């Protein structure tokens, strides 16, 4: 059995190479078959021409895409000012829920109630209630801006989720770390700040990345209370042209941001799993 | 309720005299033979449909629908109502209605995707202003300084952008209720609606608001004309057009308009 | 006056009595070894001394002062009593030197640069100078445990507690850690060890206590306890442990 050793490979390597080549061939041909089926069969459906004209209309796409891209800047801006606020608030809530000081017990209850409520209500309802409701109390401009209150609705909702993730991170740090910190005489606050949190935050970064991706999409909910971001802009085009292609355009723009972000989050998770094992 | 039905039946009976005998235009072209399926919004708003009940024949569009049906030879009891959103109306594929009327403005772009009947109403655009700015003078320069809102899915948006060109980016909403909520929250000063809607909102919904002006129909490139929406290539279109033309010629349409839409002459024109 | 004195210390976890009226005295500069089977209450007793666990009854006196009074702030006491754990418990996100500096920085309000000379000296004394910048996962178990000892020493404690600090180590790494303990004893540190290293206890301890079911069964000088145990439980335990 030495006749294949010419390339300087072991028997096992040669066998594995063969398996790999075969797997590659199978994967390539099955992928090709699926795509061929989609590209050949779907256009054969009787309604394809109409679907194409109303969802994949190149003319409409070209006409609306630049303006959609422009409107997307607003999504990014909203995202950029919401994300840090969510992180800070989420962390504070997580810490409030972790507190053991009996004097802060009301804070713990509030923290728990807060996360229950804001995770339980659909985001769009919160956006409506806070976005229209609070300014309706009679705030003067510019303090009644839908940007402020709509963003606050997003911040409150997402902070509830982010807080739970931080809390799970905090709880995942072994209690022996707390004991070690305490045995050195560190206060609970110092122990949290220097010992527990840095480890907890590192562990939950991939999960928080997924929250950011979800947030990037939910920014579009602000359109319900006025701001003309990409989703509303696409809706306007859709109405005026009676054509859904602008939504496809908006989806393309969202994907261009979220796919790399999702891949990156997955990469971080995989990396973390490797480090743990 | 029975009174409404009676009125509708009366209209139908009246028109029946002018209708075709067997084998008229719409035969075999409707979803259900012998019946006409008409869609409207959910909810349908005053003054287009009263109390969200188009079956009563009350409200401008409800009345027009029954009149057109009668003209096409359908008795009132053969008219079936369904509800549809804008998106359902324009989605590709078979429709679950023959006609859809919910203040759809006829535009060139839309006509590429769906069919519209001949217009049954030409709506001037009007400005609804919140109480705090109700006495703004109606020069374009003064109007440009307001914070504007509009319903995102309507032709009010291009009219607003082209005719007034506000200095700050207008806020757009998903439906009329949201526009008025924003006005009540003080987030917008003024909003653009078709005149009948604006009058209704000012009188009933937004306290202290006022319709401060309307645009003459020739001021906009696309004067807002409402048409009944049909599936692209619907063979029924010819019959519907004929019915609407006939109602226009006989003055019946103007009668219905006078009955259901408020007097709009008191609103000043914007120059 | 003994450096540390325990009178009737009782600790329960629910129904389970882990320390059942323990009396123990440790003189200044003494090394006391606690021996006994797993679950005898050695580790819990150490955690009670360091106030990581509140005790139900009894008292713990440090320099004659009761440190176990319910409601007392434990932090000032913990600064005076250092503790080293079986599983090292280094902070994995910090380098060795950061691990050591954290508590003095926070509690004595000293800057890194002010602390560096004395900390470097500690590392040097325990043969770890080359490892100061390493993260815990870049160190061997023995090195990690020595860093943990340095970390506790940096607080300049008066008493050190060691909770089976060699049990998690590969046999060939045990020696370097025990050398550190000898070094510490020579420097006059008061130490309490929970340990399974019988040979070390016999060689280095001033006093050995045998615990069983949360009670001190027998205590005495190592030669006496190891060579002539009085109590049958002690005899049985040693017979198995020294086999």
Short description, anyone?
Chain B: Residues 35-264 form the Solute-binding protein family 3/N-terminal domain. The complex is a heterotrimer of chains A (277), B (271) and C (243). By secondary structure, chain A is an all-alpha fold.
Structural write-up:
The complex is a heterotrimer of chains A (277), B (271) and C (243). With 277 residues, chain A is mostly helical. Chain A has helices at residues 11-41, 48-55, 58-98, 105-120, 123-136, 146-172, 175-183, 188-218, 230-241, 245-276. In chain A, helix 3 (58-98) runs antiparallel to helix 4 (105-120) and helix 7 (175-183) runs antiparallel to helix 8. The longest helix of chain A is centred in the N-terminal third of the chain and has 41 residues, at 58-98. Chain B has 271 residues and is of the alpha/beta class. Chain B has a five-stranded mixed β-sheet with strand order 8-7-9-6-10, sandwiched between helices. A three-stranded parallel β-sheet of chain B has the order 2-1-3, with helices on one face. Chain B starts with a helix and ends in an 11-residue tail after the last helix. Chain C is of the alpha/beta class and 243 residues long. In chain C, helix 3 crosses helix 4 (112-125), helix 3 (96-107) runs parallel beside helix 5 (141-153) and helix 5 runs parallel beside helix 6 (171-186). The longest helix of chain C has 16 residues, at 171-186. Classes of the chains: A mainly alpha (277), B alpha/beta (271), C alpha/beta (243).
